[in-house]
Write a structure and sequence with these properties.
The structure is a single chain. About 40% of the residues lie in helices and about 15% in strands. The chain is of the alpha/beta class. The chain starts with 9 loop residues before the first helix and ends with a strand. α3 links the parallel β2 and β3. The mean pLDDT is about 95. Bound molecules: S-adenosylmethionine. S-adenosylmethionine binds next to α2 and β2.
């Protein structure tokens, strides 16, 4: 099967990572290998790339699409939250020149109806990027307390009807367990008052996004990965993160800001007593976004934000 996914902010990624020949790069979300192929082309010679993905279908596609680069590519099936362990196992701790995380779901995953990521086609309520993980969207919706479902829809989907949708879900599951995306779409339509149903696109869009983030613990994985990625970098190495959600962007922004701080002493201390030194230099004061052309050509680029920082030696 062809892996359909256009890499976002490709030009900006190459600009901030500045891949150099003979460098070692890690793509924590290799997907179909779009960004990885572009990095590998820049690091002709002895440069190496490690590609991680938790989705075996994506990893297989990356294997096919990056085959021409031969043994310069190492693909590892792993959640990027384990980046530290993966890099240590490869004997590359503190030696990586650049790391990219292009988080979220790929167009290919959305197109595979049976994965349950999309509200556009009826399918099992799955939404797992890692098909071996225990939590599916169906399990979450059938077992989580009503308040927790409402919180997920509100916090991760910014769904203003979160409470009502959660109420409708809990009422429905008391009669019959939820199994299909089509059933969930019907429940959402019934829960949102008719006048508000078309506000902000498809009425199920926000709920599906929120469930996907919760099922895959996307924010938890990012929070764990950032410090581990920084540790894995060589001095002068760069970490670039593309996010698609304001909560993800905030996690990246705050992490870079904390790591870029020097002295942590109270402002009234005459001399520094903590000895803390900045661990990174921020490269993108403001997040980089796509050009108008890219946003028109690729709807995923519309919400993409790229932030990057360099590890200080
Ligand atoms: C937006 S796509 C990446 C596309 C890739 N940059 C390309 O150009 O083809 C995101 C990929 O990251 C994977 N992914 C998302 N979260 C992950 C995580 N925590 N650990 C490992 N892989 C993850 C998904 O399975 C998906 O294949």
């Amino acid at each position: 099967m062809v892996f359909h996914h256009i890499p976002v902010l490709l030009h900006q990624v190459l600009e901030v990572l500045q891949p150099r020949p003979e460098g070692v790069y890690l793509d924590g979300t290799v997907g179909g290998g779009g960004h990885s192929a572009a990095i590998l082309e820049k690091i002709s010679g002895r440069g190496r790339l490690i590609g991680l993905d938790q989705d075996p279908t994506a990893l297989a596609a990356a294997g096919r699409n990056l085959a021409s680069f031969g043994d310069r590519v190492t693909l590892v099936r792993s959640n990027f939250r384990r980046i530290g362990a993966v890099v240590a196992e490869l004997g590359l701790m503190g030696k990586i020149d650049g790391i990219l995380l292009d988080i979220g779901v790929s167009s290919h995953q959305l197109d595979e109806a049976e994965r349950g990521f999309t509200y556009r086609m009826d399918a099992p309520l799955d939404m797992r990027m890692n098909p071996e993980s225990a939590l599916t969207a169906a399990k979450l919706l059938n077992e989580a307390p009503e308040g927790e479902i409402a919180r997920i829809l509100r916090d991760y989907g910014e769904e203003r009807w979160a409470k009502r949708i959660a109420q409708f879900i809990v009422k429905r599951r008391a009669e019959q367990a939820l199994e299909r995306t089509g059933e969930l779409v019907d429940i959402i339509r019934a829960a949102i008052p008719a006048a508000a149903r078309q506000e902000g696109g498809h009425p199920a869009k926000r709920t599906f996004q929120a469930l996907r983030i919760a099922v895959n613990d996307e924010l938890g994985a990012l929070e764990e990965a950032l410090p581990a990625a920084l540790e894995a970098l060589a001095p002068g190495g760069r970490l670039a993160v593309i996010s698609f959600h304001s909560l993800e962007d905030r996690i990246v922004k705050n992490f870079f800001a904390e790591q870029a701080r020097g002295c942590l002493c109270p402002p009234d201390f005459p001399v520094c007593a903590c000895g803390n030194r900045p661990k990174v230099k921020i490269i993108t004061r403001k997040p980089l976004v796509g050009s108008d052309e890219e946003m028109q050509a690729n709807p995923r680029a519309q919400s993409a934000k790229l932030r990057a920082a360099e590890k200080i030696g």
